Amino acid sequence: MSATLQAIPRGELPPGPAAPFDFGLAAAAIALLSIGLVMVASASISTAERELGSPLYFFWRQGGYLTFAGLLSILATQIPLNSWRRAGPLMLVCGIVLLSVVLIPGVGREVNGSTRWLSLGLVNLQPSEPMKLILVVYLAGYLVRRNDEVRSRLGGFLKPVVLLSVIA
User: Fold this and answer.
1) Separation CA 157–CA 136 (nearest Å)
2) Residue 120's beta-bridge partner residues?
3) Residue 89: pLDDT above 60?
């Protein structure tokens, strides 16, 4: 093992050059997002015309959300992986709190008969959506920190499974 790898604290990622940009992955994501945007427009054009007087209202709104999400994704790629790994446990706690907040009477917003939304002014948030990303970030960090334990002991594997089961 090289001296460089031995000097890195356990659970840390080695510094190194950024991975090359994956144009194929970006093209696939843009294609899927574009198809989704066309589907939103196609499915809502008559409803938007009838209720709002603007047939492309939902298309433009979804396009704005996609633009905002694209800018956030560019920002997210600038954050070092060690920062994501260290923030994982705090993000998990925040996600669990968000999932719990919707259960408080008067706080959660009911949509189609179920109370799963939080009203944040201009937008509504369904806490289960960011929780999906939070779980991926947390579990990736857990696997980096506890790699040996997960590979060698059943308990190391079962701890995150139990956590996922409780959250689900």
Assistant:
1) 15
2) 123
3) yes
CA distance 159 to 143: 11
Tell me how long the chain is: 168
- Return contacts of 64-67, CB within 8 angstroms, 24+ apart: 66/33, 66/37
- C-alpha distances out from residue 64 to 69, 83, 120, 144, Å: 9, 28, 17, 36
Cα gap 81→137, rounded to integer Å: 10
Cβ contacts of 36 within 8 Å, gap of 6 or more: 62
> Would you say 138 and 99 are in contact if contact means Cβ atoms under 8 Å apart?
no
Element spanning 75, H or E: helix 57-77
124 within 8 A of 118, measured Cβ to Cβ: yes
19-50 pLDDT tens trace: 688 899 999 999 999 999 999 999 999 999 99
Share of the chain above pLDDT 70, in %: 89
